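Backbone-to-sequence.
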């Protein structure tokens, strides 16, 4: 992934520490969710969480990007004047 981005002229390495920190928070939440479950239920939750959770995380990332963009740059109408 890093090499492919570099081949396209983008260096993602500076963002990896922030991405890693966010992933640690997500991993902790995942483990808190399954804590105390029996093994069968835990395995089922891991499969469901992986399949559906990854899609949910991608959607939440897009929402967060939109919110952060509005915080940083506004809605665009004020900048168009």
């Amino acid at each position: 992934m890093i090499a492919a981005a570099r081949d396209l002229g983008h260096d993602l390495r500076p963002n990896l520490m922030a991405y890693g920190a966010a992933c640690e928070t997500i991993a902790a939440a995942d483990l808190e969710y399954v804590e105390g479950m029996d093994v069968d239920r835990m395995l089922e939750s891991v499969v469901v969480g992986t399949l559906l959770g990854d899609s949910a995380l991608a959607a939440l990332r897009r929402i967060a990007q939109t919110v952060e963009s509005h915080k940083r740059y506004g809605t665009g109408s004020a900048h168009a004047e």
